[in-house]
Amino acid sequence: MSEENLTVLRKIIHIDMDAFYASVEQRDFPEYRGKPLVVGGKPDSRGVVATASYEARQYGIRSAMSCSKAYQLCPTAIFVYPRFDAYSSVSKSIREIFSRYTDVIEPLSLDEAYLDVTEDKLGMGSAIDIAQSIKDAIRNELNLTASAGVSINKFVAKIASDMNKPDGLTFIGPSKIKSFMEKLPVEKFFGVGKVTAARMKAMQIITGADLKKLTEQQLIAQFGKTGKFYYKVVRGIDERPVRQNRETKSVGAEDTLSEDTNEDSVMHSLLQQISTTVANRLEKHQLKGKTITLKIKFEDFKQITRSRSFLNPINKAGEIYTEATRLLNEADIGLKKVRLLGITLSRFYDDVVADKPENNQLEFDF
């Protein structure tokens, strides 16, 4: 690679906090330290695991698992409800640490973000040194640990951050990307979920090297537009920039029923609560949405969605509830019992509710 080409390579860091919610709980409550801890709800509830401490993960407990299943795996685990206000406060402190080094920050959630440090504020130059300095600051100031991945693009940096958890720092430089991508299992690729991974494996596509054998046209034919991304990224090409002030594409909420039911009154009551939550979030961000989507998850964990779009956007709880119940009725679920309901509003960029132009910028919790 020529010196000229090297000058245009970006320096990207992906920071991912280690078992974030559980680590905050163990930091704040000494009696939880060194013990299997599950954040998500009580073991006899219908909640799901938001995150689990590394001690709990040794028993096979994972995020999105039901709390009842987690209890079966580890009856001695401590189960606690999430404290999102606490996590949000810590997250803002983490963001402040990031901002010492760069303003080009793309938060993905409360506990992870991309940073472009191609030009860093402190003139440190080395992305590896910056990543280590950030990790040290998080440890010393917040008494928490983070893992970092460093590379020339977002995809590789994100994969790298997961390679040596917890408290890891992994650098994958330009000369290593080709071999790294070829060895990478297909389920680690962006956009490859369980169904797509199974489909790929049925086609004898097990690793990046297998994926690389297909032409761009073949990948698009098999996987649609995402196939074009697979073609590039398996060759180490990811041109996505780190985006400051990511635009919110949707606002929503969901909740699990206390027990599976097909009773209209019970489901309508839950939809009313969810509608109020969504309306409050829309109000917070000064948004109205033109599309509403209802998510219905059944007792067998299968799920469907139903959507409707409007000419005039909505953001009031009553409007949201009316449309959500209409979608539920139209779904015609019959005798199927429902486990979870969710509501999402989207398509609102042109309909920011603001009295003044300067109010149009969104505020994001990180």
Structure description:
This protein is α+β, with helices and mostly antiparallel strands and 366 residues long. The protein has 3 domains: 10-172, Alpha-Beta Plaits; 176-233, 5' to 3' exonuclease, C-terminal subdomain (DNA polymerase, domain 1, Orthogonal Bundle); 250-360, DNA polymerase, Y-family, little finger domain (Dna Ligase, domain 1, 2-Layer Sandwich). It has 14 helices and 12 strands. The protein has a 5-stranded mixed β-sheet with strand order 5-6-1-7-8. It has a 4-stranded antiparallel β-sheet with strand order 9-12-10-11. α11 (216-223) packs across α12 (225-233) and α13 (264-284) packs across α14 (317-331). It is globular. The protein starts with a helix and ends in a 20-residue tail after the last strand. The relative contact order is 0.10. Residues 1-7 and 349-366 have low confidence and may be disordered.
